[in-house]
Amino acid sequence: MECLPALRRSALVQCRRSHRASSPIFLDFLAPTTLHAQRRYASTTGPTRSSKHPYVLSPKQREYLDGALRVNQAGELAATLIYTAQTPHIVRSHPHLRPLMKHMYDQEAGHLKTFNHLVAKHQIRPTAMYPVWEVAATFLGWSTAALGREAAMACTEAVETEIGSHYNDQVREILSWEADAERRGEELDDELKEMVATFRRIRDEELEHLDHAVAHDSKEAKPYDPLVDMIRLGCRTAIKISEKV
Ligand SMILES: [Fe+2]
Ligand SMILES: [Fe+2]
């Protein structure tokens, strides 16, 4: 878990580097999206390996993808921080859970690294709420772990339910673009196909975390319903805000 600060730093450093490398002036943060329409997801307008014409993303689709990647990066940051805050409490009272906590944390750290890379590559502004989510996620992890193992697992169940369905929506959206491309006799760029495969893999890993939480008595948390409902509402609110801000 000692690599977390490096992952967080790398999100911002990589983003700055990619902006500098491609911008004559460093104004990307303030510039309107349309200025970058030609550069962002540039490969989605490039040649594909097949003879079909490439499917060109509309400004609305690019905006959707920007928001999706911004939210995913923020969500994965939050996930790593929740596990970082929970693990010492949980492992102290339930040492047998150390491998499980480490396994879930390691997967979250891998997800964060993936989205740090994609956000930098596509020159997407990370959410301005980054510092707020850092504090909120750490508090959520710490407080649920303080309530006990079941509450910590209920937290995982709630977060993964929302995040899993969020990734599912993104997969469904990109697959609808693929269907649209097929109707037009066009083809999605390889990079976008790879992105949807990445979203699917990560969604499945999030749902695996949800299964682990339920298997480790998340439903026994007290009070289960208010706790889970509150965390799910918090997740949905954070997703909505991070899409735009
Ligand atoms: Fe994750
Ligand atoms: Fe997860």
Automatic annotation (TrEMBL):
Pathway: Cofactor biosynthesis; ubiquinone biosynthesis. GO terms for biological process: ubiquinone biosynthetic process. The gene is COQ7. This is 5-demethoxyubiquinone hydroxylase, mitochondrial. It catalyses: a 5-methoxy-2-methyl-3-(all-trans-polyprenyl)benzene-1,4-diol + AH2 + O2 = a 3-demethylubiquinol + A + H2O. InterPro entries: Ferritin-like_SF, Ubq_synth_Coq7. It comes from Penicillium malachiteum. Its main location: mitochondrion. It is found in: Mitochondrion inner membrane. Its cofactor is Fe cation. Fe cation 2 binds at residues 108, 160, 206, 209. Fe cation 1 binds at residues 76, 108, 111, 206. Catalyzes the hydroxylation of 2-polyprenyl-3-methyl-6-methoxy-1,4-benzoquinol (DMQH2) during ubiquinone biosynthesis. Has also a structural role in the COQ enzyme complex, stabilizing other COQ polypeptides.
